[in-house]
Amino acid sequence: MPRLLLCDDDAAVRDSVRMTLSGAHYEIEEAATGPEAIASFEASSPDAVLLDIKMPGMDGIEVLEKLIARNPDACVIMVSAHGTVATAVECTRKGAFDFLEKPLDRDRLLLAVKNALSHVGLRRENRALRERLRRETVILGGSAAIREVLSMIDRVARTDARVLITGENGTGKELVARAIHERSDRASGPFVDVNCAALPGELIESELFGHEPGAYTGAQTRYLGRFEQAKGGTLFLDEIGDMPPAAQAKVLRVLEEGQVQRLGSGKNQTVDVRVLAATNQDLPAKIGEKQFREDLYFRLNVFPMAVPPLRARREDIPILASHFLAEFCRRHRLPARQFAPEALQHLSALEWPGNVRELRNTVERVAIVSDGPTIDASSVRRLTTPLPPGVAQAAASADPFAACRTFEEFKGASERLFIEQRLKANAWNISKTADAIDMPRSNLYKKMEKYGLK
């Protein structure tokens, strides 16, 4: 139940407001003076505050200043019987969320509180998303190779120089781009990423530069392209080596002029955007084959950064594997687990052609299959060591994924194994299992029927 702090020196007003808000299922705390309100705010951290302006001793505006000083995210609704535009503006400037005049209208009061709590919820959600993004985009490792990458990130982030990030698939090129953005003066602006390989050739220009209504068949409304979406921030062109030649020429023009022209428009739009690009291809070789523009390459390659493959920094594998395991258990509400030292040694000895992405997927697969707080070397070895041709069929019954031919089949096998293990852990109690995995019982019954679990 949302908690509100009501501060007013008039007991009759507090009674009236309390009855209105209690009837709407809000929990109310009361204060008759400014110091009482500050003490209550510090003790209980209410979701929102209703604060009268005219009070003896410490007035509402002074209380507002102290609340905001203690918590800049405090959501405060100011109330006054002598409201003026100047007073409302002053309160807003000092951090108030809204301003209400007495006598309080019931519907206006309830709407203001609802909007305030919605605002608080959005702030919390945004903070949680930012924290989750920070955890998921952190670059882990202590090897000399990764320390060099982090050093280069810190140096180039302070500038607006364009960066061309190269490396094999799965090495973390996007993480490097996001780290550069987060450490730059543009961190408060948007980070817009474009996978050039995933966009069809006929759509990539519209996606990058935008279009006006009627620019082509099906273009019914104005669309701001990725360059304009990233205004004031960073545009990340991933897989730049797969960009069609026609789009390369237009990107070159934007980089040279700092202006973009939407399809179907004769006007140029100025864009203030930093461009980062990444590729796993040999762009100089593509230039020699006339598949990539040399002038665009030089425009993008102001500051080259090569991200090392995982096999070149094996000492980081235990750190990464343990991090991915902890993240997986937290995300899926599983008991905390850890790798045995021998298991980490085995992971560190592998080649990892898919690099960090492959390691993450392997760790999650091992976490699904393994039981107990410690994952031993045999569990890891069984799911990571390629089987000889004559042994694969015999091992199929031991390895639930051996028969999987496609990713969809692997997902189905993983889901079946996960549900079966949770059912066993809860002695096949359907209600307890459904609660443990946060799944409606009806859905769990359907999954059990689907996978033949009895």
CATH topology of the largest domain: Rossmann fold
Distance between the amino and carboxyl termini: 40 Å
Cα-atom radius of gyration: 29 Å
- Strand line-up across the major sheet: 2-1-3-4-5
- Count of alpha/pi helices: 20
Largest sheet: 5 strands, parallel
CATH superfamily of the largest domain: P-loop containing nucleotide triphosphate hydrolases
Overall number of strands:
14
| CATH class annotation of the largest domain | Alpha Beta
Q: Can you tell me the overall shape?
A: globular
Total tally of structural domains: 4
What portion of the residues fall into strands of 2 or more residues? 5-15%
Secondary structure: helix percent = 40-55%
CATH architecture of the largest domain: 3-Layer(aba) Sandwich
Structural class: alpha/beta
User: Taking all residues together, what is the mean pLDDT?
Assistant: 88
Low-confidence stretches: 387-398
Structure description:
It is globular, with a radius of gyration of 29 Å. The chain is 50% helix and 12% strand. The chain contains 20 helices and 14 strands. It folds into four domains: 131 residues, Response regulator (Rossmann fold, 3-Layer(aba) Sandwich), CATH 3.40.50.2300; 165 residues, Rossmann fold (3-Layer(aba) Sandwich), CATH 3.40.50.300; 74 residues, Helicase, Ruva Protein, domain 3 (Orthogonal Bundle), CATH 1.10.8.60; 62 residues, Orthogonal Bundle (Arc Repressor Mutant, subunit A), CATH 1.10.10. With 454 residues, the chain is of the alpha/beta class. It starts with a strand and ends with a helix. About 3% of the residues have low confidence. The strands form four sheets. The protein has a five-stranded parallel sheet, with helices on both faces. Strands 7-8-11-6-12 form a five-stranded parallel sheet. The longest helix has 31 residues. Helix 4 links the parallel strand 4 and strand 5.
